[in-house]
Design brief:
By secondary structure, the chain is of the alpha+beta class. It has 2 domains: 76 residues, Beta-grasp domain (Ubiquitin-like (UB roll)), CATH 3.10.20.30; 76 residues, [2Fe-2S]-binding domain (DNA polymerase, domain 1), CATH 1.10.150.120. It has 5 helices and 5 strands; from the N terminus they run ββαβββαααα. It has a 5-stranded mixed beta sheet, with helices on one face. β3 and β4 form a beta hairpin. It is globular.
Length: 157
Amino acid sequence: MLLCTTINGEYMEVEVNPDLRLVDFLRDQLGLTGTKIGCRRGECGACTVIFNGKAVTSCLIPVMRAHGAVIETIEGLMGENEKLHPLQEEFINRGAIQCGFCTPGMIMSAKALLDENPDPSVDEVREALGGNICRCTGYKKIQEAVLGAAERIRKGE
């Protein structure tokens, strides 16, 4: 079937197997392997992408639901001249990354929050990241990274 969608700002028309899940399409057909596969049940958040402005677990989305959608993956966050997004920089600077497996999903959940609310409270950050599991860092440094990125974004950095 023909899928017409926009991914990381690029409109595309692609033949897809309608039985695929969005995560498999992104990884296997487009090579966007920053979207991780964890549980395949929508419970771990490793496969989180932004789908029409909302953070979603891509392992639960049939690829054909992406027809006409606007999707952002971790690969789409890099700015001009390959500059890291403030979220990516803050995760690095604050030590919010250890094994890194959960990081893309965490960052995408955080970006969806900051796109909607550039000045979140700690509780709002916790709620936005509630669907993302991290087994290495704990959540304190991750929350600090999101709040630090929010401050930088508000300042226009």
